[in-house]
């Protein structure tokens, strides 16, 4: 079956603004949008540019907007879209660089702000750490995050406030502070107790809707709020003689 | 000019391990053509080996037994002291990863969980469900942020610069600005991963074009044992997405069209958990003899494992089947066929990861030390990447601190980058010829067809002819993009040059090796021949032609015997 692919194109050296280009292409029945785009590039227009790598929904390179829905191009089957007209656009909330390439720097910068690593200064224990399966189970949901930025792009708060840390970074923080190996003190992450942190979230759960890995980042944000509440109480308590 | 003490090319497991282990007082940077988290390592599923003895059946495990399994699995082509070094370092490497924050799955005694894998005498594969690569790479990346490692993300290295027998740096293409720039370095480490996409059917990421190997080769560094290409037994039919060996480790069956567990005819005691070369050939033989489905695949059946185990231990496999196959492995068997998976061969380096050229080092899948010989065991390559990634970080640091003089090389480096730029501009001026993506598709098709699991003289010779033809056509190909920012066409164009060299070295090595060993199976020479072939192939480019040499295998405690499983 023939499909019309309308792909947003932008050449920063020539174009004043992005425009759609149409390609007629007949994908194989089981093709994903990414495979179709690669074939279009190989057969029709080698100048078409987009990010890709693993093609199995684990590297997080290829997030785009397909017929209005934010997802990974490698995860979206063409046939499942139920229409022969397919519109492909770059991620919103991040600046377009060329074709479907967006500037990911703001996303990575937000991540760095939460100090996204285990805080443990001790030596490596000789026979490893002792950790319960149940404790790992609690964070497993958040470990599935591949940092593809689907959530960041779909988030209405990130769209209007560039300082907002966004769902992925906050969910990552929750995963870390819940880890039994992490010894960070509440005062070291207290800065997320703010409007550009956990209180920025509108709780419209767009992030949960679009996450291709079922991370449900908003669960992490809400859990952080509860944790902050308890930590603040403890903090106040501690300061009083 | 950009200048570093150590420049690490590659942000996968090996590259990041090197960055974390390099001397923090040196000026170190990681350069990668994709953001490090998009590296192929992220896709590793099943796990990483270490003889921790946490499994009830693994209490008697030891690094010696791990070493023996590795050597036997290699069909005795591994250098035994190198295999020993890796296995001795395994347990501490795992504990270090755990300490960095890797969320390994656990066993009831609050210890790291382990599962059985192919070719291993004990269950020794540590895992995090079936996303082991993802959690290790993300954790290493987190640690790199903590240590303020300098990254050049989305920079493609196009040339390795070696002059007067000394490594001087690289030329690289910055995707964001579209510029081609020289980078000076006292030491260069390649951790550029595998070349899977030289083949049509491959489990590798689309970006695994292997240019690191080609650049090293063109700069005069020997490639070793390149004819040994691992074909993984179980890739999902159609898309060739990997179905981890962990699926068989958890108890999955391989069934032919008569519903028979056919591995009993090939490896009666190890069954589905024989080494990969043996299982891949068994599957292909079943298919070739009409016992497959649609003459293309057999079944991997997980249904008897039950929903709970599949959900808990193999959630990514479940999702891959649902998302890419449209069925659930809880309800239906998985159609699988062998596909290219891993490169045992690579850049010739010693146990310290030093190449014959001062200042040039390599680790991870692009390197060949050799620990995997003619066939790698599952779970040993993440270990290789982590252990030798750390070692190369130390080796390069010591090299930089120990060398007094560094030649003044700026004019040479600058000239090389101008040459690369000029070539690009010339190609962009041309206006006819085949585009490089089409050439690549042609290469892949005949490599899978003629240099695959079963090889013979006729096919291999034909493949060499086709490579020569492609070289001619490549000369005439051109670049259509005028905007060089984020230009995938240029990336592929630059890497394709390397792919032709890699294809040639693999094929020529396979043609010359008139025996069968590990992954290299010659239908016209179907026995192992230790008298003549217990040696490594070394291929060096001399005047644009491959020169072949051989080197004895280093045998230690274990004398070669026939492999039986
Ligand atoms: C699907 C799959 C599953 C696997 N599962 C397992 C498993 O469970 N256990 C196991 O032990 N092994 C497994 N393996 C093998 C293992 O994942 C790889 O061998 C290992 O991850 C390689 O790591 P690396 O760091 O050497 O290379 P990679 O992770 O491939 O990294 C290569 C890096 O080099 C960069 N690069 C390459 N060329 C250039 C260039 N020209 N310029 C700039 N940068 C460049 C890339 O951007 C990337 O950052 C699996 C392999 C596959 C394909």
CATH superfamily of the largest domain in chain A: Alpha-helical ferredoxin
Strand content of chain B: 15-25%
Largest sheet of chain A: 5 strands, mixed
CATH level-two architecture of the largest domain in chain A: Orthogonal Bundle
Structural class of chain A: alpha+beta
| DSSP helical segment count of chain B | 15
Main CATH class of the domain at 409-525 in chain B? Mainly Alpha
The total beta strand count of chain A reads 7
CATH topology of the largest domain in chain A: Fumarate Reductase Iron-sulfur Protein, Chain B, domain 2
Strand order of the largest sheet of chain A: 2-1-5-3-4
As an assembly, this protein is heterodimer
Could you say which structural class the secondary elements and strand pairing of chain B correspond to? alpha/beta
Please, how many domains of chain A?
2
Helix content of chain B: 25-40%
Rg over C-alpha atoms of chain B, rounded to the nearest angstrom: 23 Å
State the separation between the terminal residues of chain A, measured CA to CA. Answer: 75 Å
Overall pLDDT confidence of chain A:
95
Fold and architecture overview:
- Chain A has helices spanning 33-43, 105-113, 133-143, 150-154, 156-160, 167-177, 186-189, 206-210, 217-239; strands spanning 3-9, 19-25, 63-66, 69-72, 85-89, 96-98, 101-102.
- Chain A has 241 residues and is an alpha+beta fold.
- Chain A has a 5-stranded mixed β-sheet with strand order 2-1-5-3-4. In chain A, strands 6-7 form a two-stranded antiparallel sheet.
- In chain A, helix 2 runs parallel beside helix 6 and helix 6 packs across helix 9 (217-239).
- Chain A is elongated, with a radius of gyration of 21 Å.
- Chain A starts with a strand and ends with a helix.
- Among the domains of chain B are: 236-340, Succinate dehydrogenase/fumarate reductase flavoprotein, catalytic domain (Flavocytochrome C3, Chain A, domain 1, Alpha-Beta Complex), CATH 3.90.700; 409-525, Fumarate reductase/succinate dehydrogenase flavoprotein-like, C-terminal domain (Methane Monooxygenase Hydroxylase, Chain G, domain 1).
- Chain B is built from 15 helices and 21 strands.
- Chain B has helices spanning 13-21, 63-73, 80-100, 132-146, 211-218, 246-249, 276-288, 306-313, 315-325, 380-402, 410-429, 436-450, 457-476, 488-512, 530-533; strands at residues 2-9, 28-32, 48-49, 114-115, 125-126, 150-153, 155-163, 166-174, 179-190, 223-224, 229-236, 253-255, 298-301, 334-343, 346-348, 360-362, 367-368, 454-455, 521-522, 535-542, 545-552.
- In chain B, the strands form 5 sheets. In chain B, strands 1, 2, 6, 7, 8, 9 and 16 form a 7-stranded mixed β-sheet that branches.
- In chain B, helix 1 packs parallel to helix 4.
- The longest helix of chain B has 25 residues, at 488-512.
- Classes of the chains: A alpha+beta (241), B alpha/beta (565).
- Chains A and B meet through helix 1 and helix 3 of A and helix 3, helix 4, helix 9 and helix 12 of B.
- The complex binds flavin-adenine dinucleotide.
- Residues 9-15, 31-34, 36, 39-41, 43-48, 132-133, 156-157, 191-194, 203-204, 211-212, 242, 244, 341-342, 364-366, 378-382, 385 of chain B line the site of flavin-adenine dinucleotide.
